[in-house]
Amino acid sequence: MGHTYPGATVPFGAVQLSPETDTLSYEVNGKYNGDVYKYCAGYKYEDKTITGFSHTHFSGTGHSDLGDFLIMPTKGKLQLNPGTASDPKTGYRSAFSHNNEVAEAGYYKVKLDDDNITAELTATTRVGMHQYTFPKSDQSHIILDLMAGIYNYEEKTVWTYVRVVNDTLITGYRQTNGWARTRTVYFAMSFSKPFKSYGRKSYDAKQAYRGFWGKFNQDKNFPEIAGKKLKMYFDFDTQESEKIKIKFALSPVSQENALQNMRAEISGWDFDKVKMQAQSTWNKELNKIQVNTSNDNKINFYTALYHAFINPTTYTDLNGEYKGLDQGIHKAEGFTNYTTFSLWDTYRALHPFFNIIQPGRSNDMVKSMMAHYDQSSLHMLPIWSHYANDNWCMSGYHSVSVIADAIIKGTYNGDANKALDACITTSKHRDYEGIGYYMDMGYIPAEKSGVSVSNNLEYSYDDWAIAQLAKKLNRMDVYDEFIKRSNNWKNNWDKGSGFMRPKLADGTFKKVFDPKDTEGQGFIEGNSWNYSFFVPHDPVALIEVMGGKAKFTARLDTLFTMHLPDEFFAHTEDITREGIIGGYVHGNEPAHHIAYLYNWTDKPWKTQAQVRHILNMQYKPTADGLGGNDDCGQMSAWYMFSSLGFYPVSPGSDIYSLGSPLVNNAVLNLENGKTFIVEAIKQSDKNVYVEKVLLNGKEITNHQIKHSDITNGGKLTFYMSPKPKNK
């Protein structure tokens, strides 16, 4: 599905202003509602109605939260419930058509058919701007639904506060308990036109104590509202084609900061000016890479680049303040604080991509991780963090990969030894996800964890990344300890079956085992066929245990050509048929490096063939063009790296493995003022094989380049051919 959203945001913006197309609850009758998964980004292309426009969204995730502060313009009789998709006129939602929908970088437009209202959205970093064109009516309304949310449930909203400052300005906050356990978002909302009246409806259950606020009629024109379940409305008289505009600013700290953000980022009411500013910002960022390729491939490439520059998101007010993991107010001194770190996904390619194209932001992202560590009561780097919380989703401690990669590639300018200490401390948190067993036994017993094998494999890689950082800093005692730990993957290798396999506490392998199955086999979002290749830090040793280059090559061939029956991924939301080639799962992350492993065999041309096959099969310029969740830009980063002809198989190393470029040529405009050019001579759909590669005129024979080869500037030239070259 992709799970991306079509609304307005700016690069790495704190506001993601986008339409919601339904209101599904996370649970039904006390159980998980599987259909809610379709709405991780709030928007499902197949839907026929829109329920409103909210200000926060994740891009490409397989779990969700957010959807804060939903706004919906309506006319006629006031309705404060959303109604149903089958009969939208029973509520405030509206039918719409894709024929009347426009989505551009930094801008979204749609006609709301039921009330004949045109909605337009744009944004700055911390402010969303709405423009609603109304018909003539003395019953025009703008609804602010403070109960709406993504992955919503009955008790998700903990508390809501609204203050009507005057007839054009509203401030407040909402606290929720969801994927982020303790999340408070402050807002300031300003109208371009005074409303004639306003009110609220409370859906709160009867409370044991309500104080003495009952002395007032709080439902109509009352300026201070508080409760768990609130909806606000604002009434207007409108002339034909009259535009009512809204500025909606967010802050993690306070209402006052939200108001300051609004006044600084959008001083007036010129919607088109804000839109042009957003699009100019996007053009500047997207022009960091200029590609020449076919039209479809160009659309795919810049769509990928756009998605890669959405997350992580800014989590700092204009005055530098942000809420920390300790729920205290901190000030980011000399850096922008970021959130939305989907690290199990993004350490693989997105963060390495930033070290080339966004090194300044990458530096700030590592500083944000270090601030997270300093504020953590558990003394751990982020696992999957957003909005001053760690939601602990997925496995591994992949912050260490991002940090090691940034320091080894010269991106991070903070205290590298302190960063290494944070990595070490995180990796020794014994009561987190089996780390104690991993340290004591060299593996995690299957009885102790349902994802014992994938955790062991991922910890082994992360420990290798720590070892590389320690080596760079000449802390050889740390290097020796963690390079030894990085070999723990061997303890789950079962020579008898030829697969990574769950091991019991008594040292024997689990008897009931199916390497195709994704359930109950010790793996998270994957199976042993894919995870058995997850030793990105030591392909040479993996090839050796699998019987040498010839057998390893044959095994890779089988992965890409076998048939994986539906039953083997029926219980995994994130793996669908669309994201699978043979038994290789590209629509999920653990196998993203696998196509490049042929480079360590005698048949590197098979890397070239498979990479091009994946590029063409898994990415299309259509509404359903992604073979899996974009996962905060990881799927997109894989596409861009592979289109350019190289990929970071093992972040924490300064080496990129070469593949088969999809571009005819590309220019990377680097922050240091230098340019790196990729050129693919005679590249075509048939000419997918590499005859030879030159770096600045000198031939490369080992199928790899270094990070410094890129950052020093120069030219990488591929000579393409319709025939494979064996060596």
Number of strands: 38
Query: In DSSP terms, counting alpha (H) and pi (I) runs of 4 or more, how many helices?
Result: 17
Shape label: globular
SSE class: alpha+beta
Distance between the termini: 38 Å
Percentage of residues in DSSP E strands: 15-25%
Spatial ordering of strands, largest sheet: 8-9-10-11-19-15-14-13-17
| Largest sheet composition | 9 strands, antiparallel
Mean pLDDT: 97
Topology:
Blueprint: E1 18-20, E2 27-28, E3 31-32, E4 49-50, E5 52-54, E6 70-75, E7 94-95, E8 101-104, E9 107-112, E10 117-123, E11 127-134, E12 137-145, E13 157-164, E14 169-176, E15 183-191, E16 197-202, E17 224-227, E18 230-238, E19 242-251, H1 255-265, H2 271-286, E20 289-292, H3 295-308, E21 313-314, E22 321-323, E23 329-331, E24 338-339, E25 341-342, H4 343-346, H5 350-357, H6 359-375, E26 384-385, H7 399-408, H8 416-427, H9 435-441, H10 452-472, H11 476-485, E27 493-494, E28 499-500, H12 528-531, H13 539-545, H14 549-561, E29 580-581, E30 584-585, H15 605-618, H16 634-644, E31 646-647, E32 655-658, E33 665-669, E34 675-681, E35 689-695, E36 698-700, E37 704-706, H17 707-711, E38 714-721
Domain Glycosyl hydrolase family: 257-721
Pfam families: Glyco_hydro_92, Glyco_hydro_92N
Protein name: Sugar hydrolase
